[in-house]
Design brief:
Blueprint: H1 30-36, H2 42-51, H3 56-89, H4 98-132, H5 142-150
Length: about 150
């Protein structure tokens, strides 16, 4: 199929070039694969890390997703254990103000947990967005581990 250019000198017409980003081992554009590495955390991080052996951009985002999710799970476990221990220590009539103290402690752990949840959710959305835009954000501590894993 030929394209006709009416009233235009054929020697000055340039064919459109592809502006898409490079594809990956998964067949997706690298920015899409990088963003999807964060979608289901550890699961998609592992999948894209294994599938894309050559693309450094995707491997970094997949590794960062894996390390970040392991860190978040670790913080959640520690937070749960500390909350359980504090609840047991201050439960009942161990102290004269045990009931009030337990209620305040429960409220405090709930509020801290919600702040952490919202922060992790915002970070998750931000990392997906920046990866989709083709940028790499190296998180403190987590990013260093991710770089070593990705290489």
């Amino acid at each position: 199929m030929s394209t006709e250019h009416v009233g235009v000198d054929e020697s000055t017409v340039e064919e459109p070039t592809s502006m898409s980003t490079p594809t990956t081992g998964s067949g997706l554009d690298e920015n899409v694969a990088g963003a999807l590495s964060y979608l289901f955390g550890l699961l998609t991080g592992v999948v894209f890390f294994v599938v894309d052996k050559e693309n450094e951009f995707v491997r970094f985002h997949a590794a960062q997703s894996m390390v970040l999710n392991v860190a978040v799970i670790g913080v959640y476990i520690v937070f749960s254990i500390v909350g359980a221990i504090l609840s047991v220590l201050f439960f009942g009539d161990l102290f004269l103000t045990g009931g009030l103290l337990t209620g305040l402690l429960s409220l405090l752990t709930f509020l801290v947990g919600m702040v952490l949840f919202v922060g992790v959710l915002a970070l998750w959305v931000y990392l997906m967005y920046t990866a989709y835009k083709g940028r790499t954000v190296k998180l403190p501590i987590v990013g260093g581990f991710a770089e070593r894993i990705a290489k």
